[in-house]
Amino acid sequence: MCLTQPGKVVAVNGGFATVDYGEQGSRENVNVSLVEVKPGSFVLVQGGFAIKVLTEKEARESLEAWKIIRQELDSGEIM
After folding, report:
1. Rounded to an integer, what distance in angstroms lies between the CA atom of residue 35 and that of residue 65?
2. What does the pLDDT look like over 9-46, one tens digit per residue?
3. What is the number of alpha carbons within 13 Å of residue 41 lying toward its C-beta?
4. What DSSP line would sit under 17-55, residue for residue?
5. Distance between CA atoms of 14 and 31, rounded to whole angstroms?
6. 3-state class of 16 per DSSP?
7. pLDDT at 5
8. What is the pTM of this model?
9. Contact 9, 18 (CB under 8 A)
10. How far is Cα 23 from Cα 2, in angstroms, rounded to an integer?
11. First and final CA of the chain: distance in angstroms?
């Protein structure tokens, strides 16, 4: 099973971008050859590829959902 994760593009270098995943403090270089992005864009990442550009609203909603899931996983409510 593959999960998609939202993130914010902080830098673009050719066909790759550095994406910041926010609260976790993690950054990753992802392939952006499938989408058109610039620093500040929000993207949905799957398997190392940015597969969709998100609006800021979509990204914020998705990030909030991930935050809730992580909190529940940490509390042991979801197994």
Report:
1. 24
2. 999 999 999 999 876 668 899 999 999 999 999 999 99
3. 18
4. EEEE-GGG--EEEEE-TTS---TT-EEEEETTEEEEEE-
5. 9
6. strand
7. 85
8. 0.81
9. yes
10. 21
11. 16
CB 43 within 8 A of CB 50: yes
Whole-angstrom distance, CA of residue 38 vs CA of residue 76: 38
Q: What are the structural domains, with CATH classification, of the chain?
A: 5-75 (2.30.30.140)
Distance CA 72, CA 8 (A): 24
Say what percent of the chain tops pLDDT 70: 90
- 37 with 43: CB under 8 angstroms? yes
Residues in the chain: 79
Output 4 or 54, whichever has higher pLDDT: 54
What is the predicted pLDDT for the residue at 23?
A: 67
Copy the structure tokens of residue 56: 């800021």
